Amino acid sequence: MDLFGDLRRMNKRQLYYQVLNFAMIVSSALMIWKGLIVITGSESPIVVVLSGSMEPAFHRGDLLFLTNFHDDPIRAGEIVVFKVEGRDIPIVHRVIKVHEKGNGNIKFLTKGDNNEVDDRGLYKEGQNWLEKKDVVGRARGFLPYVGMVTIIMNDYPKFKYALLAVMGAYVLLKRES
User: Fold this and answer.
1) What is this structure's pTM?
2) Is 59 designated active site?
3) Residue with more model confidence, 63 or 164
4) 51 an active-site residue?
């Protein structure tokens, strides 16, 4: 397979068509993602479980579907995805305690099902409770192990670039029949 020979033989009109086709695929994916953000109320409506801290409920590589409606109160037993200041990657854990104050302010504590202790050691220094603003979303459904592709691509960056190159070449070289 001579990739560059195929590109040279392809006329400019076909090349423009293929580039436009690729751009439409990328823009469609972005529109779907933004639509999911609006529908679910979550800045990240789909996340991958990256550790075994929630086993047996969720395993590494499970794909979680999230919602984050602000008028829906957080309750003990719910599984939330939250971000902690100073950490880039969100954490998926279960709410174990909720403190509601008279003014409507809610604070809560989380813990991984497979962990021995609560998450106070994961929060930023001096923080003992999470607040609603820390929540990215709440788990509403999942697909088991579908996210392993994401984990493999993060663990092996060369695989990720090779896969992207193959997909890009396929879209550019695919001829409509």
Assistant:
1) 0.78
2) no
3) 63
4) no
**Whether residue 119 lies in the annotated active site:** yes
Report the C-alpha gap between 148 and 62 in whole angstroms.
Answer: 7
**Which residues sit opposite 111 in a β-bridge?**
94
* Rounded Cα distance, 44 and 136, in Å: 7
CA 172 to CA 6: how far, in whole Å? Answer: 10
Domain limits, the chain:
3-40+149-173, 46-146
Active-site residue (options: 42, 62, 119, 134): 119
Architecture in CATH for domain 46-146: Ribbon (2.10)
Give the H/E segment covering residue 174. none
Q: What are phi and psi of 170, to 5 degrees?
A: -60, -45
pLDDT digits over 78-127, tens only? 999 999 988 889 999 999 999 988 777 889 999 999 999 999 999 998 89
More confident residue, 163 or 46: 46
